[in-house]
């Protein structure tokens, strides 16, 4: 009997401490403010309605915080999501971005929605209004597609031959220390892509290790030593709809080594830009861009390309 | 999520050697109106020639093949099209006949892919079209 009383008293103290702690937490609130809107995205009303409903809380300076978002410790998570969200994409400072980057951001955002990476699952738990249905996605698809029609090339662009630069003997390593891989164009191609979102065409090559894995149908995960090379060209289109590769844009690589590249999802990422094959980025942090974009493919070992079946 | 693009494969019932997909890529192209995309492959003779030369006067022994697929939307990226079903495979062989370099044209089409009969005028038209593809190679 005495033991039971002590036990009950302990529980009472425990809950009291918990309640006091919870109340105290409410006095430590993050300051989530709405900075000035300097250049909001201009889009049709139907598109704006969807974006405001599903995206603007974290991706604009017009965040509307609900009462339950202000309850600590959840308010700290909400604040973190808003800071990171605005950093990645902010519709309120939209006009500061060049047109090309605006279009790229819209396609990326839309693909993250389609692949169910966005809106964040934890956000949707308490913000059901942010769920995008099929109709919403169709409206967004039409809108982003309408922004990126590729103009027909001028006649001189159609007749100019691509000039291959003279062999480059020394190409600087990427900023994360990867050496340029010459001779990838002797590898087998596993697919090609027509990227109408940004007017580029690509060929994706794979080394022998990857080709064997495709034949054995063992590509998830891809075996150690796998290397992909992706080569991008600007699309040149004539009045008949024929598209040919124009200016060389860049070559990029994914190198599978789970130990060496453990901190970057098991892949070494590298890109060399332009005819002079300049290493991409300003610091080695460029890798974060590659990884962020490939995150929706984590269930496919971070690889977007579906190789053409060889069986 | 799908791992393989089964749609674009050369089927086992196609009367066509898969070896062509092992050849080297010389370039690729798209036709927006027909919603097709093509890859021009070449054997080692053709590839080595294209790495060194701007023209399309391939040496005897060279073979090139234009594989054309219908496009399909990429399930992994809205904004991209990838190869769908194979539409045609056209091969040009550069051979020596009686001391002269000649070009032989062969076309496979349909599902399954079978060799189709073509006349001389058609062959010349297609040879010109294929030889005018803009080569896209880099170091």
UniProtKB/TrEMBL annotation, chain A:
<protein>
    <submittedName>
        <fullName>Cytochrome P460</fullName>
    </submittedName>
</protein>
<dbReference type="InterPro" id="IPR025992">
    <property type="entry name" value="Haem-bd"/>
</dbReference>
<dbReference type="Pfam" id="PF14376">
    <property type="entry name" value="Haem_bd"/>
</dbReference>
<dbReference type="InterPro" id="IPR038142">
    <property type="entry name" value="Cytochrome_P460_sp"/>
</dbReference>
<dbReference type="Pfam" id="PF16694">
    <property type="entry name" value="Cytochrome_P460"/>
</dbReference>
<feature type="domain" description="Haem-binding">
    <location>
        <begin position="19"/>
        <end position="148"/>
    </location>
</feature>
<dbReference type="InterPro" id="IPR032033">
    <property type="entry name" value="Cytochrome_P460"/>
</dbReference>
